[in-house]
Design goal:
Structural class: alpha/beta
Strand order of the largest sheet: 2-5-4-3-6-7
CATH topology of the largest domain: Nucleotidyltransferase, domain 5
Number of helices: 20
Order of helices and strands: EEHEEEHEHEHHEHHHHHHHHHHHHHHH
Strand content: 5-15%
CATH superfamily of the largest domain: Ribonuclease H-like superfamily/Ribonuclease H
CATH architecture of the largest domain: 2-Layer Sandwich
Number of domains: 3
Radius of gyration: 29 Å
Length: 440
């Protein structure tokens, strides 16, 4: 997906139209089969992209799929009309696929029967190379010198028919993706990071489907203002009621009820629907009609027994670790250990010009710092990192440094006091030459 807004320097060549023009949207099986044959006859990697309707729809399904290969041109495919794209998988499934921010698009492509066996992620390549801005538009501009059209990334791609300017934007998103891949591959090789990238790409391909987030209601904006467990229960109840409506209607939850309205209702604790609709967001006609739903959620939370109230703090994803900001009070020694490990890992990331989270996953370093191996050697730390999912290149760069940071350093020797003028202290007489002293 292209950046929303990036400054274009005078040296950048604006790319306003696809070189072969904007292709028509494929909506029938015969045209799809023709596209698959063209792709099979093309050359080199295949560029893929997908457009979703995030912010408009509840689901994360694809509403447009873009494909391009040298010698084949660009195809725009409507996955609403054609929900099974396995014919393309059959033709190019074994070819390297190029995506930008692959982890965002692979789940919705998989729903259509599209799964790569080999991958090149241009965004991840940019991160490994130390690019500060890794949006597609800025990467194409900086690496290739072309400015992509911007402005439709946040559009409602479930709209039908799709406007021509949107289709042009979508086609341009794959226009130079393979060329960007080729240039980044050269840079990765020159910096000794090509093997790093290949390991990362393979890990993305092999990753299992993402597990649902634990307690997603805790991500409600403004939830820090809910001070009691009873208020947290009210946030949870309202969030769940909203989620049910959003899922049923396939509407983005924020369009059913904004997070700010949930927090406002919880903090004001209206006694009935009449009081609820006096709150600013609930005073509109649409939310007035559904006031009974939100009051029902608040009443449900108010009636919960104490034992069923949510804990005051969130779990940390099932690993049993406290949040890092609580380590100092829970285990000061572990907190100091984590600080040493982080400093060591940060230094390595700086040396290799990449974000620390790409060098090694922060959750993994926390786990190793909280429960280090009994004998923290490079080998035992390497085993712990691999068990946690680290790739070989990450282990090779970090295991020794982490192992060195885990043990508590010995206390510093006290400095010897010097006399005035910096004179050396007088030597102590040997034991045998000291005068005897009577015991008291």
């Amino acid at each position: 997906m292209t950046d929303a807004a990036e400054p274009v320097s005078p040296a950048v060549t604006p790319l306003l139209e696809p070189v072969e023009g904007t292709p028509p949207v494929i909506t029938d099986a015969r045209a799809l089969a023709d596209v698959a044959e063209r792709l099979a006859a093309g050359d080199g990697p295949v560029a893929f992209d997908a457009e979703r309707a995030s912010g408009y729809r509840y689901s994360q399904r694809a509403y447009l799929v873009q494909v391009r290969r040298r010698g084949s041109g660009t195809a725009l495919i409507d996955p609403v009309a054609l929900p099974d794209l396995s014919v393309i998988q059959d033709k190019v499934g074994g070819v390297e696929w190029v995506l930008h921010a692959a982890s965002q698009d692979l789940p919705c492509l998989a729903e259509l029967g599209l799964r790569p066996t080999t991958l090149f992620d241009t965004e991840l390549a940019g991160r490994l190379l130390g690019y500060e801005r890794v949006g597609l538009g800025m990467m194409v501009e900086r690496v290739l010198g072309f400015g992509l059209e911007k402005g439709h990334s946040a559009a409602d791609w479930s709209t039908r028919p799709l406007p021509e300017p949107w289709l042009r934007y979508a086609a341009l998103d794959v226009e130079l993706l393979v060329e960007l891949r080729d240039a980044l591959a050269v840079e990765l090789a020159e910096t000794g990071k090509l093997d790093f990238a290949h390991q990362e790409f393979a890990a993305i391909v092999a990753a299992p489907p993402r597990e649902p987030r634990a307690e997603p209601w805790r991500r409600t904006s403004g939830i820090h203002r809910a001070r009691s467990r009873r208020q947290l229960a009210a946030v949870r109840a309202m969030w769940s009621a909203r989620d049910k409506i959003a899922r049923t209607r396939d509407i983005a939850p924020g369009r059913v009820l904004p997070d700010s309205a949930i927090i406002d209702a919880v903090l004001n604790a209206p006694a009935d629907a009449t009081e609820l609709v006096k709150l600013p967001v609930f005073s509109g006609p649409r939310l007035r009609r559904s006031a009974s739903v939100w009051m029902g959620a608040l009443a449900e939370a108010a009636a919960l027994p104490e034992a069923e109230l949510p804990p005051a703090t969130a779990s940390t994803g099932g690993d049993g670790l406290p949040p890092p900001n609580r380590w100092a009070e829970r285990d000061p020694i572990a907190a100091a250990r984590l600080a040493r490990v982080r400093a060591s890992v940060n230094a390595i990331a700086t040396r290799h010009h990449m974000p620390v989270e790409n060098l090694v996953e922060p959750a993994l370093t926390r786990r190793v710092a909280w429960s280090p191996p009994g004998d923290p050697t490079e080998a035992t730390v390497a085993d712990a990192l691999r068990t946690g999912g680290a790739r070989d290149w990450q282990v090779g760069l970090t295991a020794a440094a982490i192992a060195g940071a885990l043990p508590e350093p010995p206390p510093a020797a006290p400095a010897l006091a010097s006399g005035s003028g910096g004179a050396e202290p007088e030597p102590v007489a040997p034991e045998e030459s000291r005068p005897a002293v009577d015991a008291p």
